[in-house]
Amino acid sequence: MLLHRIRTAFVSTPSSLAASLLAGALLLVAAPDARAQDDDEFSFELEEIDPEEQARRDALRERLMRPTSFVDLGVWWNSRDDFKWGDFIGHEDSGFEVLGAVDLDFRAAWDAELPWYARTRGQNLGLRSRFVSGEYGIQGLVGLDIQYDEIPHYETESFFTPYRGTGGGFLTLPGGWVRGAQPATFPTLAADLRSQDIQHERENLRTSLSLVLPLDLEMDFKWRREVKDGVKITSGILGSTGGNPRAALLPEPVDYTTDQGDVTLRWGNDTGQVELGYHISLFNQHDETLTWQNAFLPAGGWDDDPAFGRKGTAPDNQFHQIRFSGGVQLPLTSRFTLDVARGWMIQDETFLPFTINPDLMAPVPLPNSDFDGRIESTVINARFDSRPFERLRFRTSLRYDDRNNESSRDVYLYVPGDVVDQGTITDAIARVNRPYSYELFESRTDLTVDLGWRTKLFGGYEYEEIERDYSEVDQTHEHITRVGLRSQPIRQASLRVEWEHAERFGEDYDGRASFLAGLSPAHIATLGPAILDFFENHPLLRRPFLTDRDRDRYTAALQLMPHEMVQIGFSADIVDDDFEDTTIGLLRRRGQIYSADVSVFPCADLALHAFYTYEDYRTKQRGHSFRGFAAAADQANLNRRWLARDTDSVDTAGAGFDWTFLDGRIELDGDYVYTRAKGTIDTSTISPPLASSDPNFPDAETHLHGASVGARFRLNDMLSFRLGYYFEKLDVDDWAFENVEPATVNNVLLDGRRETEYTAHLIGLSMRLEYR
Amino acid sequence: MKRIETALAVAAGALLLAGPGARPAAAEETWLAADQKCLECHDESGEKPVLAIFQTPHGMKGDSRTPFGSGLGCAACHGDGTAHMRSADGEERAPLEVVFKPHAPAGPKNAACLECHEGGSRMHWQGSAHEVNDTACSDCHQVHASEDPMLVKDRTPGTWRHGQAETCFSCHPQQRAQMHRVSAHPIKEGVMRCSDCHNTHGTIGDAQLTALTVNQTCYDCHAEKRGPFLWEHQPAREDCGTCHVPHGSNHPALLAQRAPFLCQQCHMASFHPSTAYTADGLPSGSSPDNHLLSRNCMNCHPEVHGTNHPSGPRFTR
How many Cβ pairs closer than 8 A exist between chain A and B? Predict the structure, then answer.
């Protein structure tokens, strides 16, 4: 031992319980003398240590009780320009980067009467993912936190477009642009294409003030402002139906500011705790529209040849929520906890006109100048947990989640794609918005029985009921039962297995309900008796989140410790969804995950680990291709049905180590991960008249190799160096982008984005100055 | 065993007279003295270094809420150590009242922590998934470290696996694998942490999320998708998880499955929504298809999360 070695000798051993209780009582009554006497019964025989050595050791101990501050300064060399490689970190450009970090941790000594602290941290200071924070205050009294960080997100650097004005809300084509009927016939497209970077950056400023108040009260104030600035991909479409749409992928400006605030008042003691909070979130988009120049010649069915199209961007919105939480300890090792929250989502953005095209016939005005959007949310969660007997545990909970959408509901005689005249109120394009509401009620009860030998049997039942507006199913019910076993009969092994079975069923599925709710009453009146045969989706379609479903879930986990230095784990998780009453739609969905991992600790300074995970997700879905002009005949033709089997399988394997040696002067760490993901889609069951010459898609595959090795050399207590090397090789083969040029397809001007493929190296050397 | 009983009896007797929470000032000195005795043996050279606790909020004597500020010192969490210290030389020392070794029962370990930390985000700990599965606070947290790795925010390249995520992955290996997918939230970049979305200390809602619903959790960073919108997309309004998987996907934008097939599970109207898409629609096929390539359905319907444009009922505006 670093300090004194002590040897204690037990002197007094009172033998009777009564005497002991009496002695204990007397201990306090007669304090302090009695305690001094009791202390005398210890015999701490301290090793004789030289006073100088003792002073040295005391100084060392004192030093170890002080926090460490450090300053890092390093240089990194990045071998590769690539957005994906630099995503979220910020090293998207090759070459040298300066990387700095600081952690200046100053605080009062542990035994100071005023426990003040002042800590300033910075990370990735030379990168676009920089992070700076400050924590200042007096512990137990007041604390102020300030934090600023940036997060870059790079989507693609190969977005090819002829449009100019990226980053703004008005996109134009170059002078001399010659329109064509299809992208392949744009005469100047190749010459006018420019590569644009699609990226955005988040800047976050967070502040919080925490106060410890009298009467066991605490209060927190938090404010966060996030500015998100950059460009994302969207599409601008002209035309809408009858095969006449003409679209182009476009860069849409992202210029968001989101402010979030929280005020929380908290009180608690040994038996109960309560918390009352208010949360506000204000979202603001500064570019409210995106206007783009029409690149296409007019198509059939267009009533006009517009110069521009216009779409809206995300509207400003607000969210307010008041939340109360509480918990109380009850007899029989019981606890009751409660969450109640009432919230309001509000959006009242002024509407854009139906169309930007002044030459279209659009005499019917908007029903309102702005959207009176409002969703009132109520969430109540309550749980009672009790262990009335040592071997029995009982837990029951209730959950109520109501999202009452009180937004205005009106008829909108919309203008399809800025190219078609408005029509009349009796047309099918006179639409009514559907402000969906949602009400969930859930109850759950679980029992756990301790069987002894550190083995517990558990099981439970859960009921869930959901009501929806404007939906194919008004109400769904789900019954869930689960049973499992958890056991650790010996220290070296633990096992957990669980089976869960869920049956969801709904009231009668009305495939027309949602669609009809979105049509104007005037149009519905024109349908007359034909409304009974009216549909949009195939009548046999069953939407998977609404329809009947049986779910079985099996989970198992085994942990072994054959030796104190070796830990081995296995786990399996299988979910099987069977939509047995579905004819058209999702029929089956199955996911399987198997994992194995091992950790070895040959000595205190060396740790090794490795893992492997296999995932397999499969879906089977059936469709029925039909044409609007021959809907009934096509639906009767079962040869127009098709089946798609989709499989995603992923192997992930990795290994790593941490090793400290030479009395802690050298720290080594390394890590390697390999991921292979393969997506397969098989539509081989298609038969005439849908026969395909090439029914199966090529595999979409991703291979990712990632490795890192780092070494820190400590020259002395104050100075150390770290040498780091990172390697990543990513190869994505995705048929959705492979050989897809801007003019590859009809009707849509694509972006010609390249598939991601890179091999990148990052080597860095940094110096750390430490101070206590 | 006899000595343990004796020590416990002595302590119980003391408690009988002293009552809960009534610790005279003179006794504090005794407890502090006991801490000094603890440190005689337990220091940086031991199997488990402890001195760094004095660099942390737990070690601050000036805050009356802390173990050392309350006067209880080490005993605040470990219980009375008298029997442990009195063990005779050469004998195996009697265990402390509260043993934090990995295989010790979680209940007493957690009770020591909850004595002070039952409020706030730990309000719903009892009955939570982790608590029910006998997870101990000390399975994840390191009280004696100068900085608990679970609380460290470090986005220095390559450091993620020494932080919070790796602790979570030790019991949730599938999330570790999903993090390495081509589309994933930036956990391994150190920009996000599991606790940004999950309150691992327990909630009564879904998946121990920090907010009260799945969507409220997502809107925390994606407020532009909150609305409400004039034209709502029902599954998006209800649950982001209907189309997206949060931990990593082989498909763009964390989608659960490749579109157009994902969309066709709910949309089977005449013409293109019901079309049987095959490799014929690839650039190498007979008819390259704008519903299949690049952004597939979103080549024309980009506003799938909802839109406020009066002419946007089909999510094209």
Answer: 544
